[in-house]
Design brief:
By secondary structure, the protein is an alpha+beta fold. The protein has 2 domains: 68 residues, no CATH class; 110 residues, Chitinase A, domain 3 (Roll), CATH 3.10.50.40. It contains 6 helices and 7 strands, in the order ααααββββαβαββ. 15% of the residues are buried. InterPro entries: PPIase_dom_sf, PPIase_FKBP_dom, PPIase_FKBP_N, PPIase_FKBP_N_sf.
């Protein structure tokens, strides 16, 4: 980051255009193009990988329609090497993020009261009502639920709000769709949902990427 910002400052200082001089349409739109390009590069590959001098050289050559200083083979090899490096870093980061949840699920699966389905969903029955009314994936259900991460952090709870929720079972995460179909009206289950049956690598609200989700669910009614 320091290298990038220092070099960027050097380039900016070498120009005569100050922020207060951005008055014309061309000046302001050109500034936006540069801002957008810089933001995208920072998000996609990280500022530490951007050589601002080489970037400005390529930008200038492109604007001048000059002969590229590198062959297409050299450019392709460099881009492929960068993509492989980024992919390796993403895989390492993903493995690191998944590790606590994987360890939790492996240990949890050894508990006698826990059932593991073919998909990897884990659940335990907390209370059975004796009802024979169970939902299908196309049904809408009314439930109370309390959702936590493996460290106990509460990320959502209709119980805490005191307000049951209605939703179609085919419109929620796969772990819910599968799990709630195992229940009958009046039952209470606890589900341990692997990230592949939840939000995978996406951060959603207070839920980090690759999170195992724990839900205590009471099925109040099949609509």
């Amino acid at each position: 980051m320091k290298k990038f910002t220092t070099l960027a400052a050097t380039v900016l200082l070498s120009t005569s255009l100050a922020a207060s001089d951005l008055e014309t349409v061309n000046e302001r739109s050109s500034y936006y193009f540069g801002l957008d390009l810089g933001s995208n590069l920072a998000q996609q590959i990280g500022t530490e990988r951007v050589d601002i001098e080489a970037l400005m050289m390529g930008l200038q050559d492109g604007l001048d329609e000059a002969e590229p200083r590198l062959s297409m083979d050299e450019i392709r090899d460099a881009v492929m090497a960068l993509q492989q490096e980024l992919q390796s870093e993403m895989e390492e980061q993903s493995a690191s993020l998944r590790e606590p949840g994987d360890a939790f699920l492996a240990e949890n699966a050894e508990r006698d009261e826990v059932v593991v389905t073919d998909s990897g969903l884990q659940y335990e029955i907390m209370e059975e009502s004796g009802s024979d009314v169970s939902p299908t994936a196309s049904d809408t259900v009314r439930v109370h639920y309390h959702g936590t991460l493996v460290d106990g952090t509460v990320f959502d709870s209709s119980v805490d709000r005191g307000d049951p929720v209605e939703f179609p079972l085919d419109g929620v995460i796969p772990g819910w769709t599968e799990g709630v179909q195992l229940m009958a009206e009046g039952d209470r289950y606890r589900f341990f949902i692997p990230p592949d049956l939840a939000y995978r690598d996406q951060a959603v609200g207070d839920i980090p990427p690759f999170s195992v989700l724990i839900f205590e669910v009471e099925l109040l009614e099949v609509m």
